[in-house]
Amino acid sequence: METDDDPQRAGMRVQARIFLGIAAFLVVATVVYGVSSAEDAGTTMLLLAGGMALIVGGYLAVQARTQVDAGDPDRAGEGGDDDPAEQGEAYLPHASIWPFGVGMGLVVMANGLALGLWALIPGTLLSASCLWGYARQSRRRD
Hints:
By secondary structure, the chain is mainly α. Helices cover 75% and strands 0% of the residues. It contains 5 helices and no strands. The longest helix is centred in the N-terminal third of the chain and has 31 residues, at 7-37.
């Protein structure tokens, strides 16, 4: 087991393991539930929950590894002096309205799945355009 003096990095690895454990449990539960019940909706929801936990756990594992590798002298010269990873800080974009627009678009899009194309298409367009705007805003660092 590797030792790390930074409790934040160690904590991130623990969080990643927890989410990956939840994902593994939900995938096993999906298989058991799907075989025993032969019910599609519950099986799909369990699989989606496992997939979401896998995404979060994978992201945390990659971030923990990236933060650990950021202090590696072999990787010197990859970032500038203003690189937040080199300073030990995570870069977060400024406050924005774009995430709210993405959420509203997803709500309209989800309702469109039940109500029809008249709500699905505008919801998809709203989500995509707000996601594009948020990505553009996040690229610019002040």
